[in-house]
UniProtKB/TrEMBL annotation:
Family annotation (PANTHER family): METAL-SULFUR CLUSTER BIOSYNTHESIS PROTEINS YUAD-RELATED (PTHR36930), MOSC DOMAIN-CONTAINING PROTEIN (PTHR36930:SF1)
This protein's name: MOSC domain-containing protein
Pfam families named in the record: MOSC
Recorded superkingdom: Bacteria
Signal peptide (from-to): none
Domain MOSC: 18-168
Alphabetized PROSITE patterns for the sequence: MOSC (PS51340)
Organism: Streptomyces chryseus
Length: 180
């Protein structure tokens, strides 16, 4: 199983969107070099306010580019990096991966999947009504989060658009992704 990296993005400042780059460097145990969310402890403001010593399970944010196609059909225009993700992919059901999945990217980088992104109201400030498109409910009433997944860097390396992405599933039983 595999896919492709279609875009990489980072930002050294707290903003909702992240500009696209020609490459990003993943740093083992930290995240994306120069990105505001890199570090061993939490960097997201709401989590820092709760407990700044929590481990950073959100070092890298990945979104499947197919989400942008889905949003376009609903009248929204979203480009890679605009939802704050670091890596945009195609050809992989990121949301269907189990916790602990390893994503081998390019020649060296490895990300361990930790959970689902839980988007906040800032997404509606970016485009009104977008939150309802990326967080909803299934037929059974369960919350469905579609704004990507989060992970930690297990092996560093440079990641570029066009890099192959290979999936290594953890041992069973698989645990479904929860919000982190």
């Amino acid at each position: 199983m595999g896919g492709t990296v279609t875009a990489v993005s980072s930002n050294g400042e707290y903003t909702f969107t992240k500009p696209n780059r020609g490459s990003v460097t993943l740093l083992t145990g930290l995240g994306v070099e120069g990105d505001v969310h890199a570090g061993t402890t939490v960097k997201h403001r709401s989590r820092v306010a709760q407990d700044p010593t929590q481990p950073n399970l959100r070092q890298v944010h990945l979104i499947h580019g197919e989400l942008f196609d889905e949003l376009r059909r609903e009248g929204f225009t979203v480009q890679p990096g605009e939802l704050g993700e670091n890596i945009t992919t195609s050809g992989i059901d990121l949301l269907g991966l189990p916790e602990g999945t390893l994503l081998h990217i390019g020649d060296e980088a490895v990300i361990e999947v930790t959970g689902l992104r839980n988007p906040c109201r800032q997404i509606d400030a970016f485009q009104d009504g977008l939150l309802k498109q990326v967080v909803g409910r299934d037929a059974q009433g369960n919350i469905v989060r579609k704004a990507g997944i989060m992970g930690v860097v297990k092996a560093g390396g440079v990641v570029r658009p066009g890099d192959r992405l290979e999936i290594v599933l953890p041992a069973e039983p698989h645990r479904p992704l929860e919000r982190v």
